[in-house]
Amino acid sequence: MRKKILKIVPILIILILGILTIKVNASYRSNDPTVESGGTFSITISSTEKIENFDANLTGYSGLTFVSCSGVDNTVIVNNGKLSGATIGGYTTLGTYTFKAPEVTEKKTFKVSFNINGTTNTSTVTVNPKTVTPPPTTTQPPSTTEKPSEKPTTPKVTSVQGKYTDVNETVYATGSINVRKYDSTEDGSSVVGTLKKDEAIVRTGVGNNGWSRVQYKGAVAYISSRLLTKTAPQPEEPQNNTNTVANTISNEITNTISNEITTNTITNEVGIVDENFDDSAILKLKSLKIKGADISSVFSPDIYEYKIHMETGRKLEIEAIANQSDATVEILGNEDFEGDENLVTIILKSADGSQTCTYQIIVTLGEVSEQTNSENEIDIMYIALAVIIGLIIVITIVIIVLKVRARKNEDDLYDEENTIFNYDKEVGINEEDDDDKRKKGKHF
After folding, report:
1. In what order do the strands lie in the sheet with 200-207?
2. Same structural domain for residues 158 and 270?
3. Residues 276 and 185: beta-carbon distance below 8 Å
4. What average pLDDT score do residues 309-327 get?
5. Average pLDDT, integer, range 61-65
C-alpha cells in the first residue's frame, strides 16, 4: 500500500503542475493585400492578444520580391526577414513586411508565409494586371496653311483629370520646366513647350491634383504646381565688365545647382525636367486622424493595422493623407457597423497606378466595462482553481505523512512484542534444564 501511494504522488504533482501552466495561446494574423501588376505592397503581422516576446520569420514568398521589413518600435530586432521582440508592455502589432509584385497579364495569387512563435501564418496576395487606359482624343491638327496664331484658344481637352478653381495671377518658373497639354505625365500628355527659370506665365486655375492651368501661347496648358512660384525673381546687380565671363560661368553653375535642388527634379541631356522624380519612393500614409480616438502615440507610416474601440456609433470619421500629394485615398467600411468587430480599409493608390498601399482599422463595438468584468471573472476563476489545487496537494501530502508514520509505529510495536515473547520462552526453557540437572544429581 505504501509503495502504491508513493508511485501515485509524483503523477498527481505532474498533472497539477500541468493544469497550473495551461494558458490561452495567442493567435496571429496578417492582411491579404491586393495590388496592381508590378506594384509595391505591405503585409502587417499582429497578435490577437498582447504578447511580451515573439520571434517571427519570413518562410516563403515564392514569385514575389522581398523589399524590406520593420518592427513596431525600436524594441524589435530586425535581421534578414526575421523580427524578434521582447517588452514588458507586450505587443499586438509585431511588424511590417514590404514586397514588390511581378508583372502579370492576368489575375494571379501568391502566398506569403510566416512562422510566428512556432505557429504558421499565411497571407494571400492578389495581383491584378494593369488597367489599359485608352489614348486621349486629340483635336484635329491645323492645316499646313493655317497660321499658328489662328489656333483655337480653348482646345478640346478630353483627358483632364483634376477639378480647377479659377484664378488670375502671374507665376514664375522655379527652373527649366515642361508645359504639358494635359494635367498628367502619361505618354498621352505631350509636352507642348518649356519655360526657363524665372520666366513668367499667367495661371488661370489651381487643380485639386497638384497641377496648375495656364495660358501658353494662346492655348490652355498645364504645369505641375510644385514647379511654379508666386514670388517674383529679384533683379540682378550690375556686374563688373572685366569679370563678365567669369561671373557668367559662375552664375550658370549656381543656377543649375539651385534649379536641381529647388525643383527636386532631374534634368536630362537636352535640359527638359523629368517630373516623375519623387523623394517618396514607397507610397505610405503621412498622417492619420480618427475622430473620437487618439492614435497619435502609436501612429507610424510603417504600421498598417490599428485597433480602436467604440461604445456606440454608426460612422467613423477618418482623415488620411498620403505622403505623395497626387495619390488617391479611398476609405471603405467606415459606416453602418454591424456586430462586435468591423474592418475599415484605407487604400492608397499612386497617380500613375504603379503603387498600392492598404491600411486597416479594426473597430470593436460595445461597453468596455463588460469586457473588463469578464476578464476579471476569468482571472478570479484561475486564482480560485489554483488555491483549490494547492489545498489538494497539501492535504494529500499530510495524509501520506500520517500513513507513513502509522505504518512505522506498527512495525516498531510488532518488533517489541516479538522480542518480549522470545525472551519469556527462552527463560522457561532454561528453568526446565536446571530442574532436569538437579534430578539427575540426586539419583547419582
Report:
1. 191-195, 177-180, 219-224, 211-216, 200-207, 164-173, 228-229
2. yes
3. yes
4. 84
5. 91
